[in-house]
Amino acid sequence: MRIKTRYLLLLIPLILACSNRNTPQAVSEDFIYNYYQRADQAAALQLSHGLAAEKLKDEIARVSEVRTPGQQMDEMPNIEYEPTGKKEEATHVLFNYRLTIKIHDTTTHTRNVVINTEQIDGKWKVVNFDEY
User: Fold this and answer.
1) In the beta sheet, which residues pair with residue 55?
2) Which among 24, 90, 106, 130 is most buried, taking Cβ atoms within 10 Å?
3) From edge to edge, which strands make up the β-sheet containing 92-103?
């Protein structure tokens, strides 16, 4: 029984990797995972286009003095997100999220994030993002 559980745990990431991630919601959530939860601007850049890509390239240039691209931070805060709204149009979908950021389980901050996605050449991309 223990061996079957191990194979099942290995199978789950494979199934998720094969699922369709070319949807506005999947791209938006992948962006949040990479940019906010992992602080990996280079991975978030792969999901971006237009103004969002420009913002990320500028940020990558600014942080390159203190860390190399793809380098993870030593201590990451715990960041959770929940969707708070969505506005859909034919080729654009705008998502609103509330981020809860916990540092050392003692300090908690919240941020509202807006992510605008657009279908470009058959692929959904994040074209802008902002927080307040």
Assistant:
1) none
2) 24
3) 78-88, 92-103, 107-120, 123-131
Q: pTM to 2 decimals? A: 0.79
Q: pLDDT of 67-95, one tens digit each?
A: 665 556 667 788 999 999 999 998 899 99
Question: How far are the Cα atoms of 62, 76, 103, 113 from residue 26, in angstroms, in the given order?
Answer: 28, 23, 26, 16
Q: Are 96 and 83 in contact (CB under 8 A)?
A: yes
Q: What CATH number does the domain located at 21-131 have? A: 3.10.450.50
Q: Using DSSP, state whether 131 is helix, strand or coil.
A: strand
In the chain, what are the domain boundaries? Answer: 21-131
